[in-house]
Design goal:
Length: 275
């Protein structure tokens, strides 16, 4: 027979074990719940795709691609014009910025008698690119021919001519040859699907060739002289002025200039919005 003290002692031990067991269960449950909550907090829901406007999407694709995209998928009129300008304008701006940098450097060195080897090398490179003869003697630098050629073609004028010659980027010549300006080739240097016309690897290369053509070809000497005269009288070189100074680009003569000017006026605001 178990004594009363022993019973009480046994009951106390039983109650203690029960409390320990219950606490362990509660602790385990709390830990599991806490762990589950933590995993939920750390889990971040990522949408499968982010919607962007057609303008953003087109701009992003045009930057990745160096060739002219198929602009025929855009409705004719303003949507297609905007898509075309978003494609070509960055290259036009970039080209004129590079020209401006060279011109400003030439102006800064015009009355400087000190020439480092690197500066002489830069001058030699510029003279070569713009087809200006120079002996290499820094005492006899052909400043007038250099400054007459190393100058911008107004952004709006380049964009207008590209649009006019390529049908806002939809002509076969533009699509297959990246030729936006109807530039012809000769002397056995022609290649590509369009016989007699230049083919370019990219839109940027087409813009570079057009600007270089106007700045170096003998046929556009009067264009360059008119631009140089504007510089001498501190007048701005603008599209509205220079379009009428361009001679010999088309067999249509002055009617071609009038056509370009009318096209520029009709799209002036749209072009300006993409500059």
């Amino acid at each position: 027979m178990i004594s009363i003290p022993m019973r009480r002692y046994g009951a106390a031990i039983l109650m203690l074990l029960t409390c320990i067991f219950s606490g362990s269960v509660l602790a385990t449950t709390h830990t599991a719940t806490k762990s589950h909550k933590a995993s939920v907090v750390k889990k971040v829901h990522k949408p499968s795709s982010i919607k962007v406007s057609s303008k953003q999407e087109y701009s992003r694709n045009s930057v990745k691609s160096s060739s002219l995209p198929d602009l025929r998928k855009y409705p004719s009129g303003t949507p297609r014009k905007k898509a075309f300008l978003r494609t070509v304008m960055p290259y036009i701006t970039k080209q004129n910025q590079a020209i401006t940098a060279d011109r400003n450097w030439l102006v800064s060195k015009q009355y400087d008698g000190r020439w480092s080897p690197s500066e002489q090398a830069r001058l030699k490179d510029i003279a070569s690119r713009y087809k200006v003869k120079w002996s290499g003697n820094t005492r006899h630098i052909p400043w007038n021919p250099l400054l007459e050629r190393v100058d911008i073609i107004p952004n709006s004028m380049v964009a207008t001519m590209a649009a006019a010659e390529s049908g806002w980027g939809t002509s076969k010549l533009a699509r297959e040859n990246n030729n936006l300006f109807g530039m012809k080739c000769g002397g056995g240097n022609c290649r590509g699907a369009m016989k007699g016309y230049s083919q370019f690897e990219s839109v940027e290369q087409s813009v570079q060739a057009y600007v270089r053509n106007l700045n170096t070809h003998p046929a556009y000497s009067s264009f360059r002289k008119s631009r140089a005269q504007l510089r001498k009288t501190d007048q701005e070189v603008t599209a509205s002025t220079m379009i009428h100074k361009l001679k010999g680009y088309s067999t249509r003569g002055s009617s071609y200039n009038n056509y370009l000017f009318a096209m520029y006026q009709d799209n002036q605001r749209l072009i300006a919005a993409h500059m």
